[in-house]
Design goal:
This protein is an alpha/beta fold and about 210 residues long. Helix content is about 50%, strand content about 15%.
Length: about 210
């Protein structure tokens, strides 16, 4: 898939701490193509900024502490999760359009965070209300190439000591990524006990 500087658009799957950002940066540093690293995630959407308004006006009981000691709205604490599910879905659409424009401008897209992250996060926090939007998001990803960067719970916990999500969220993410990779026959690169260079070399062979 990746040969010299002939990169295709590529989605990296994997939990926080598996090395997606590092891998993307390494690929960009060693390519002369026009590459845009894409981040499609709830924390970069309109829904997140709406949640900040709630926080500002004192609804702190609706929030949990996430990575890097930041606070995020926990949709499970809302009275109407169906409405928030729609807000999450609608809020992600401008990000999709943004990167479609980059693609039209001739950029190769490396997805550090993708709609898979959105789907899995909302499976945890908004199940079953968000489920009706999953098929739409899957279609929007089209046939973009995908690689699953894998690491187990112990490895991620050692790498990311600043994760403060609910204790079972990391395990849930790993299980979900494993399930999706198996269901969609996505190639897997095991990142445990490997250098960045070794991981990139393995990706280039896929």
């Amino acid at each position: 898939m990746i040969i010299n500087n002939n990169l295709d658009d590529l989605i990296f799957l994997g939990v926080d701490g598996v090395g997606k950002t590092t891998i993307c940066n390494q690929i960009v540093a060693n390519s002369n193509q026009k590459i845009q690293i894409a981040w499609i995630r709830s924390q970069h959407s309109l829904a997140y900024f709406i949640s900040l308004i709630f926080f500002h006006f004192g609804f702190t009981h609706l929030f949990i502490r996430g990575g890097n000691n930041e606070f995020f709205l926990d949709p499970r604490s809302l009275k109407n999760s169906s409405i928030w599910s729609f807000i999450e879905f609608a809020s992600i659409l401008p990000l999709i359009i943004k990167y479609k424009i980059y693609s039209l401008m001739g950029y190769t897209l490396l997805y550090d965070r993708s709609l898979f992250d959105t789907i899995i996060q909302n499976r945890y926090f908004l199940f079953p209300h968000f489920k009706k939007y999953e098929k739409v998001l899957m279609r929007l990803m089209g046939n973009t190439k995908r690689i699953y960067l894998y690491a187990d719970f112990e490895t991620i916990s050692a790498r990311k000591t600043n994760l403060f999500w609910p204790p079972d969220f990391l395990l849930f993410q790993i299980d979900q990524f494993n399930e999706i990779a198996q269901m969609l026959s996505i190639p897997i690169v095991d990142t445990r006990n490997k250098t960045v260079e070794e991981i990139v070399a393995e990706i280039r062979k896929i």
